[in-house]
Amino acid sequence: KQWVYLFSAEKTEGNKDMKDLLGGKGANLAEMCSLKLAVPPGFTVTTEACLDYEKNEKAINQDVKAQVLKAIAEVEKLTGKKFGDNANPLLFSVRSGARASMPGMMDTVLNLGLNDQSVLGLAKLTNNERFAWDSYRRFIQMYANVVMDFNISLLEATMEDLKEARGVHDDTQLSAGDLKELVTVFKKIILEESGESFPTDPMEQLWLAIAAVFNSWGNPRAVKYREIYDIPHTWGTAVNVQSMVFGNMGDDCATGVCFTRDPSTGEAKFFGEYLINAQGEDVVAGIRTPQPINNFSKNDSNKNFKTLEEAMPKAFAELTEVYKKLEGHYKDMQDIEFTIENKKLYILQTRNGKRTAAAGIKIAVDLVSEGILTKQEALLRVNAEDLNQLLHPRLDPKATKKMIAKGLPASPGAGAGIIAFSSERAHTLAEEGKKVILVRQETSPEDIAGMVASQGILTARGGMTSHAAVVARGMGKPCVAGCSALMIDYAAGTLTVDGKRYKEGDSLTIDGGTGEVIEGIVPTIDAAITADFATFMQWSDEFRKLGVRTNADTPEDSKVAVKFGAEGIGLCRTEHMFFEKDRILAVREMIFANTLEDRKKALAKILPFQREDFVGIFSALNGLPVNIRLLDPPLHEFLPHTNEEKKELADSLGLDMKTIEHRGEQLHEFNPMLGHRGCRLGITFPEIYRMQVQAIAEAAVICTEKGMTVLPEIMIPLVAVEGELTILKEDAIAEVERVFKEKGKKVKYKVGTMIELPRAAIMGGQIAKHAEFFSFGTNDLTQTTFGLSRDDAGKFLPEYVNKTLVPTDPFVSIDQDGVGFLMKHAVTEGRKTNPDMHFGICGEHGGEPKSIEFCHKIGLDYVSCSPYRVPIARLAAAQAAI
Ligand code: ADP
Ligand code: MG
Ligand code: MG
């Protein structure tokens, strides 16, 4: 079995389609070698070897070891250096690389192979003592951190102290002697603190480093990252062992990161940052302010620095050629890592670059107009869920705002909340229901959970390609980075700007599109829809087969949804209308009525309100279908809670408080979810549904008379047996016809049912006899199929997801095997009985891409989701159809 794959200009065994085996990084390194780019040669140890290692009680098997040794020999031949040699040492980087890119999740060790002897050889060979010792001290730091699991803040503090003693600001200002001294001290600290001496044998260093990368797959932050991004824990990571090139040999050397297009806006302009005389992650770690690679990449904090274009024109020209080649080859925006050693350019990584949703759309639309992608390909490029970022509010430009500082506009969108200085605090405060802005010196992969919990991220250090910026863009969270005016004191828990002090709990607003940091909470306004977005959505509509409707109960929500492209309402919940302040009293009177007469009197008070609601919604939807669900929740939900409310009700009904309390107790149910609700109310209190139907019919007539088209659909909830629907449908039709006769006007309408109980789905064929449509209420259908209450599942369902007893939370994504089976059955049987009927879904799942794909597969006519998810559903429906 082949466990190790070589990559080099001369011989390459992998390619870009082997990501499963070689990881994304390894597959792309191989591909770039085949493209004849200058990639330092090396080899990839496969993800299978990682899984084997885990299975083997964390031992690298002999076959793998033998193949690694053989590969080392090949790389020695290609480079003319020798691993473990003191005079002409071959040094390696050991890099992790999973199937899906997990930026910053796993650590890299550079300069591996150095020890007290070979560092001298390296110095002599390169005639550069400073460089050799700089490489060695970096190696010790990284190796101690990643492989020995040593807390390197001690080492970092030592280095800071030395810099202070020397009166210098940057690492680059330390001399060879300083660095040599650091190496000695580092090794001493490590020995004292850990009881282990730093390994000197290069081969031992390598085996331990490979094992550490394998182990890093299981480290908590990698696990957390996979949970957030839905990456299976079973994939494993590959290890890339690659010969080193050096960006830290002097002023002819550099290292950097670039994007083939602007990752914030998508603009087709080359963008990037670099540092002279630096190595590895110096650029993203925010140690020094990175320099712009070209004029386009300049911003407030780096505009006075020399660009790469100016500093090293030849290497820049080469890089330009490379980026064009790579983007053309991958047909997508690339995120490229490079290093320049003595003016010579090397490419160390390429991958499809993370981008904001806005950039994603612009890039997709541009690539189509550049003739690189087809519309279908472009539609598949954008993750539907990411559209979320675009549809959310931004700062109201008219609001007064007190800007206190300005940083880099690292990830667009507006966020406001209270300050939290640590990931843990952000998390805790968010759990308490607070909105939080995470304020950090800079973020690291440990901060992922806190970033997820925050409305936005603000950092004092780091550039546009810093950890905070990249991760925030991926999450669609606003981020302002590199805001150097912030003075953060973690120990004191304060943030000082311009002499003014803020502490945890004080409010801040950030605008990740402009970099502004603003005191207090600034109001926001809705997102503006760009021309590219409109184009992209129009393409989605060209390809999708599913209709997209919205769940909306008010004219305002309906308007938002229609603006986002909703083709009707799939679920209008009438009970929300019952809760309105000025009508709840009438609703309570209705519930407490002892006689039919009294109940009718109370209902007559509600009627005009309902009619007005429906007129509003029909008008907002002008001509599009509106599915209205008759009253669904158990009546006790409308009961008065406070004494004040009870008193008010008692007075208006002429009852005493005791009777009120007593009636309330009578309405109590042990299990309201399965109790007296839905059509069961309609069966026992037919006058309630009659009033609602009357309001619908009258509103339809009013709107029609105003010249509008109205398409009402009356939906009966929670049907389990055929008879319920027979009775309630006849009743509804009788009421509608009565109104039409009275008004002398007829309007087209439909009557159908929600399918939300397993029995209804199973009996779909029979129930369809009386229905003009089915709408799957998958929230209840999931609860009742699993026998699982949504309100209680939080205590154990996460554990089920963790243990993969269920692939995902079934309330988030449809359980296709179980619930989906019932849906499919109901559709098939329903269509057999009644070929003209239509099918939709109105549960929360109607806006979730995987569930939408499923709905497409089983042949539903439409999905319905909340207004802000309508564009997501349009795209997901198109992707399902392509
Ligand atoms: P990550 O997955 O976090 O991006 P990488 O494996 O890409 O980690 O390594 C981080 C950085 O280390 C790279 O961007 C590059 O600057 C540096 N690096 C990795 N391999 C080499 C190498 N062979 N020579 C020089 N620098 C390297
Ligand atoms: Mg890293
Ligand atoms: Mg990298």
Automatic annotation (TrEMBL):
Span of domain PEP-utilising enzyme C-terminal: 531-880
Catalytic activity of the protein: pyruvate + phosphate + ATP = phosphoenolpyruvate + AMP + diphosphate + H(+)
Residues reported to bind Mg(2+): 756, 780
GO molecular function: ATP binding; kinase activity; metal ion binding; pyruvate, phosphate dikinase activity
Start and end residues of each Pyruvate phosphate dikinase AMP/ATP-binding domain: 20-359
Active site: 467, 842
Enzyme Commission numbers on file: 2.7.9.1
Record-linked InterPro entries: ATP_grasp_subdomain_1, PEP-util_enz_mobile_dom, PEP_util_AS, PEP_util_C, PEP_util_CS, Phosphohistidine_dom_sf, PPDK_AMP/ATP-bd, Pyruvate_phosphate_dikinase
Leading EC class: transferase
Positions with a binding annotation for substrate: 573, 629, 756, 777-780
Domain PEP-utilising enzyme mobile stretches: 434-515
Keyword terms, alphabetized: ATP-binding, Kinase, Magnesium, Metal-binding, Nucleotide-binding, Pyruvate, Transferase
PROSITE patterns named in the record: PEP_ENZYMES_2 (PS00742), PEP_ENZYMES_PHOS_SITE (PS00370)
Family annotation (Pfam families): PEP-utilizers (PF00391), PEP-utilizers_C (PF02896), PPDK_N (PF01326)
Swiss-Prot/TrEMBL cofactor(s): Mg(2+)
Function (record text): Catalyzes the reversible phosphorylation of pyruvate and phosphate.
Family: Belongs to the PEP-utilizing enzyme family.
Protein's recorded name: Pyruvate, phosphate dikinase
Taxon lineage: Bacteria, Pseudomonadati, Bdellovibrionota, Bacteriovoracia, Bacteriovoracales
